[in-house]
Amino acid sequence: MQGARVIRDGDAWAADRPSPLTLPMLILLALISAGLVLYAAGNWALGAGFGAMVLAGAALLGWYRRLYPQEVAVGEVVPDWTVARAAADASNMAIAVTDRAGRLVCASDLFGEWFPGFPAPPHITGDAALSENLGNAARAAWRDGEARVEGIVQGALRLDAIIGRTGRSEDYLLWRFSPVRQPSALDDVHRLLTGEAGRQLGEAGIMAVMIGGEGRIRAANGAFLLRAAGRIDANITGRDFAAHMRVDDKARLFLAREESGGIPLRLLQVPLKRAAQPIGAQSGAQDGPMLLLLIDEPAGNAGGTSALSYIETLLSLLPFGLAMADRDGRVLFLNKAFSRAAGLKEGEKPSYPGDLVVREDQAAVADAVRRFAVGPQMSGDVAVRMREQPDEPIALSLAGVRGLGEAAVLLSLKDNSEESKLKRQVAQATKMQAIGQLAGGVAHDFNNILTAIIGHCDLMLMRHTPGDSDYDDIQQIKSNSNRAAGLTRQLLAFSRQQTLRPQILQLPDIVADVSNLLKRLLGESVKLEVTHGRNLGAVRADPGQLEQVIVNLAVNARDAMPDGGTLNIQTYAVPAAKVREMRSDILPPADYTAVRVSDTGLGIPPDILSKIFEPFFTTKELGKGTGLGLSTVYGIVKQSGGFIFAESELGRGASFVIYLPVYQGADADQAAQPKAPVRRSETWGTGTVLLVEDEDMVRAVAERALTRQGYKVLTRQGYKVLTANDGEQGLEVLNGGEKIDLLISDVVMPNMDGPSMVARARAAHPDLPVLFMSGYAEEQLRKSIDIANVAFLPKPFSVSQLAEAARDALATRPAPPE
Q1: Are 361 and 381 members of one domain?
Q2: How far apart are alpha carbons 740 and 744 in whole angstroms?
Q3: SS3 387
Q4: CATH number at residue 347
Q5: Domain Response regulatory: where (predicted)?
Q6: pTM for this one?
Q7: Fewer CB under 10 Å: which end of the chain, C or N?
Q8: Does some domain include residue 222?
Q9: Neighbours of 404 (CB within 10 A)
């Protein structure tokens, strides 16, 4: 009999023995019956007889039950356990129920299989210690409601027991025995494929897949996911493995996704045995799980070697750098272009691609090589810094290849040394232009300040004579201001914003004019050598500025030869054919006249050579150089339309070569005009001058200078000066009715600038002389001040310079009609 434990001994009938109230109840029942019959029939004998018959029947029934006892199940005395037994059998656990007396009242079939004979817990085995533990747990469950015992060993089983109080009145104990799940081979393989071991298998070129007996994928490593699904994070669990594969007419196995460009695969099958299941446990999975390993089918030895040799021969002939590496990242082959681009010496071959790059990039290169070696045939770039050129990041291209034996990755490295050189030159030119714009703006503002300082010094010197206590101090202030003005001119020269007075000249004449000065500057320890070539073409440049260029280069060469040496200045012609042979990316083909200034000094380090033309960059000690010498040279040469290059080798001196284009104009054969002697004349004058200047300090000093410098004591005549803050106010004064003989105006002003004001003023006064003044260079403002009958005075200027400029501008007035 299943589902309930049946009890047949006499003790089981204790609940059916007569109660003490049974006999009184029977007598009462007999009396009531006799009374009813007597009432109905009215016969005492009939009523007494009926009552006696009721008592006799009850006595006979009790005697019969004692004489012939029947089987009675516990389930017929206590609530029906049928539903509980069915639920217990469906739970896949061994379940038993005991009452307060410790008797087994219900048990599942699995409990009988694991514990034969249906023993009542806690005495389920012959192990006394286990029985004691279960007994203590039962008492704890009666007290606390639940208890637990783990690690019960029953044959090959390892069980955990959970005991809980149950029932409507909580007068039963429910015993649940469940097996402890043991790890199986399937779990181990699943963890292997999805963990670090699976990644390492992929790096070794092995694709691994676990499938069930029905052929569906249960797990796969990243290498298979990448090649079969295109993504390393693809979810293909539960899909049919065969759907990802294809077989060609030669019975070769391929990945379906790789189509015609795929590589044949070799398939290895590893059957996986399932872990033994407990007796009676149900299995929800089909049998026959399997581990599948796929690797690329290697090509035949002869064919593979022949193909690889052919590929290597082909790669060696290509003009761009190529190399091949195997799955482990070892370099198999590299051509000459690759070695040259990587900076390798002839015959040098690295073991790994990571040996070519700096230490910080080695891990990235090694990881990229492994990734492209085992994945699908894809390509990509990795930005790296080469060991020989750590300051120039370049792109290392990688591509996965298949079917070439050991070769798995193709590496490409472009020899971009020329490209990098051009990039550096463009970056340098951009930086120099930006610094030049900044320098020009600073020089403009500084020139306004210096104009006021120098002007006030001149005004004070008019009231002092040599010997006065303040005369020397004022002269010292003016001298320092002039030095500051020279510094701003250097900034303007570097930024190519200074005022040039170009002339047609011959470079040997310039060198000859400055040679005497150079001999005094160089001293006795430095020897000067000058040589001139033949057939030199004339150039168009400012002679004074070219002299400054040669002087600055000579002074730098002298400082580079502290123990003496030789300074060589050489001029020579460079025809266009020679320029083409030089293959310079900067110097355009044309005819040039060149001057080379060379020394035998210490030389310039390579890391400094690219910075020597930057303003304020100097290698001299603090206080011994401003760093504007070479930057001024650079600005003058570039503003003159030329080019300058520096060459140096440590310990063997340095050379600066200047290329100036040969002037091709109609007046190229005319010699440079000699400098006319300066003619000094009176600076006083008469007339009304309109002064337009937005800077208050400059306007004030210019007004005083014109008033005092233009005044003649004997005739008590001079300039009458009217002032305005900007162009709009200047037009109002000009149209005020008073005749204006000269207009002096700043160029750059707010609201309305000087050229705009002059253009509107000339409409009503076409013959009005104009003198522009500005802290910017005339060349920079040439487009805006390209107006007829206009003079220009650069800032800073002295009182006498302003007076002379005003006098000269007034001299251009047309003569009044007779």
Answers
A1: yes
A2: 11
A3: coil
A4: 3.30.450.20
A5: 688-810
A6: 0.40
A7: C
A8: yes
A9: 18
